[in-house]
Amino acid sequence: MGVKRHVAWAVLGALTALVGVSASVVWGLGEGRRDLAAPIEEVLVSEGWSRVGGWLGGAIALVGVVVAVAAIGRLNRSLLSNWMPRPHEAAEVLYRRLVLARGPKIVALGGGTGLSLLLRGLREHTSQVTAVVAVSDDGGSTGRLRVAFGMPAPGDLTDCLAALAADEAALGRLLQYRFERGGELRGHTFGNVLIATLHEVEHDFADALRSLNRLLELQGAVWPATPQPVTLRVTKADGRVVAGESAVRAVAGASARLEVSPAHATAMPEAVAAIAAADLVVLGPGSLFTSTLPPLMIDGVAAALCATPARLVYVANLMTEAGETDGFDLGDHLEAIRTHLGRLPDVVLGNLTAIDAERLAAYAEEGARPVPFDRERVEALGAATVAAPLLGSGRHAQHDPVALAAALVAIAPRRGGTR
User: pLDDT tens across 329-378, in order?
Assistant: First the structure.
């Protein structure tokens, strides 16, 4: 923050001013300065001064410093109290912001629970994190608002906004509050309703998200992959075509091909710019065909990903998902990314922690199984591999956000270095 440098300059300026004032006073006294100097000289040659003069001078200087520091502190608290509820924490807040502002520029693409968990981990390392969010969901509160207002899906955007909110404990809880009564409001989250309201006020979904990014003072940014409503069309391995995200898992069997309608949806300009300026771009974790791949199907986003000099990392999923990746191994996940994006990730980040039997049994009932981290297969395809213990606690087989964020930051190129 340069505090010591600024304080040093302030002290030097005060001393310079004091010397200047003293010189002016002496000059103004003229010959009368001898009358002023005589009593001072008597004190300086006295026996008492020779014994305690140094200590007395030091004590006076210390009192001056204490008074000056206390006055500056009170002035700062008085000024900051108009902007901060706890002004005594200002130094810590400013230091944290400056440290996070020097973190790597990371762009994370996807949707669902996986993306919001990742953002919660990354916010502890950098404030230069951008979420590029899939907006193709059509179920629940999101689906109702899509139909009512003709706008993209707000649900995953709400989760990501909550994850990056400056005061996540309060604001995040508010954004994710789900109404349990109130007729038409029942089932909606406040964040979804807020996005719909801004969409109506701004008459433009892109401008609505720009307003939210400003209003919420995010530790990063959250953008939709496209500001247009899009619908997923998934072709299953047996040739059946399923329309709508909520219907994909309802139809049994692995998915083979993904398309979005309209086919040439416009990319969010801020999302494209963030990818171009990134140090690291992250795909996943999340449902392959309904979270990770949908943003990649937007033309401008795909072109930016293929052109970016940033390191592209795929976070390997821990489990397969019924109706999406039945029978897939890690190589199949990567082949799907290459087929839809036109390139492979530079690095694949995998988990080293074994999933316990209880969670495996619960997932087996849903038709899901672990996705082994096969280094040889990944490297044979042309991507590098990095592995770490990433399994989180709880009843779901999910990545631990703290461990995942730390692993990704370690992969990110150092600022100022080569990409």
Answer: 999 999 999 999 999 999 999 999 999 999 999 999 989 999 999 999 99
The pLDDT value given to residue 106: 98
Q: What class, spelled out in words, does domain 105-411 have in CATH?
A: alpha beta
Interhelix angle 155-164/140-149, nearest 10 degrees: 110
Residues of the chain with CATH 3.40.50.10680: 105-411
- Residue carrying the six token digits 């990545």: 399
Q: How far apart are CA 412 and CA 415, in angstroms?
A: 9
Let me know the angle formed at the C-alpha of 63 by 62 and 68, rounded to the nearest 5 degrees.
100
Decide: 269 and 306 in contact? Cβ < 8 Å: no
Q: 262 preceded by cis ω (within 30°)?
A: yes
| Contacts with 116 (C-beta within 8 Å, 6 or more apart), sequence order | 156, 159, 160, 162, 163
Quote the CA–CA distance of 267 and 300 in Å, as a whole number: 5
- Which residues in the chain come in under a pLDDT of 50? 416-419
